[in-house]
Amino acid sequence: LLKNDGAALPLAGVKSLAVLGMLATKGNIGDNGSSKVTPPYTVSILQGIKKLASGVKVSFCGGVPARSKMLAKNSDAAVVVVGLGAKDENEGNDRDNLTLRPADIELIKLAAAENKRTIVALIGGSAITMDGWLDQVSAVLMAWYPGMEGGNAVARALFGQVNPSGRLPIVFPKSEDQLFKFENKELKVKYDHYHGYRWFDDKGLEPLFPFGHGLSYTTFEYGPPKLDATEFGAGGKLAATVEVKNTGAVAGETVVFLFVGAKNPPVKRPKKDLRAFARVALQPGESKSVRLEVDAQELARFCMMKMDWVLDPGDYVALTGPSADPATLQEAGFSVK
After folding, report:
1. What's the pLDDT tens digit per position in 141-155?
2. Looking at the domain covering 3-158, what would its CATH class be?
3. Total-model pTM
4. What is the rounded radius of gyration, in angstroms, for the C-alpha atoms of the chain?
5. Where in the chain are all domains bearing CATH 3.40.50.1700?
6. In the CATH scheme, what is the code of domain 220-336?
C-alpha cells in the first residue's frame, strides 16, 4: 500500500463501486519467457472484487471515456486497474520508460476528477513513476504480478479482510531524471556501483517512495535501537533491540530494518547498508521487542587490492526504522576494534 489519504481504504461503507481498466479482467501473472507458468486457473481483480463485494453494486468499464466518467461520478468509490504486462516487460524486452501508458494516465485523471475516493491498483514488475496523477488520487496499491489467486488477494486488501503489510524491495523514483541514464540499445555500458537506496543516499535525492516503504490500516511507533554492546572486535556481533507498538485500532504487521554505516571509512562506502530486518505482528495497543543481530564480519568490505574481505576498525552507526527514508530512522553508535 503506497498511498492512503483520508482512509480511502479499506472500502468500508461503500454501496456502489466503479471498477475501471481492462487489466481488471485479466489474469495478469507476468512474463511469457523462461519464467512463464501455466496455472490451472487465474482470478482477475474484477472477479475477486465481485466475489467479496456483498451488498455492493459493482460496475465495470474497460476504459471507454464517457462510460468510465459516468460510472466514477455515480459510485461511492472507483478502483482503476492499470499497469503492465508481458508485452511491456519480459525476458527479451526492457521498458522504454517507467511511466504508465498515456491512456492509463488519462483514465486515472478522468476517474479522479469525478470521484474523490479513487484508488489505483498498479500491476507491474518494477518501479512505476506517477508524475501528473499521484496527487489526484486517494490511494495507490502496488499489486505487482499477483499470481493465480491475485484477484482474490487484491480484493481482500481493498475490503480490509487483510491488512496490507508488504514493503517495497526497491526504490520508486519521482522521475527518470533521478536515475542514471538507461542505454537500452547499447551493447556495453558502464554504470556507477551504487544502485537503489544507496544511489539515492549518495546523490542526496528524495525518492517518490523509499526502499522499505509500505502503509498499513493501522499505525506503529518505533523506539530507538538499544545495543547489547557499543564496542566489539572482529569476532563479535552487533545486536540491536527495537521496541515497536501498534498505536492504531486494528491488528497489523510491520517490518523493522537495520542499516549500518561507517562514520569515517578509509575508502568511499555507501552511507548505509541493509544488514538485517524482521517482521512483527501486533494487536492494537500491543508492544513487542524486536531483536536484530549482525556478525561483525558482515560489516566487511571487499578490497580489490587484497582481493579479500576487510573489516575496517573504527566508528559505525546502527540505524533502525520502518524504511530507508532517513527521516524515519533512529540511530545508535558503536565501534569495531
Report:
1. 999 999 999 999 999
2. alpha beta
3. 0.95
4. 22
5. 3-158
6. 2.60.40.10
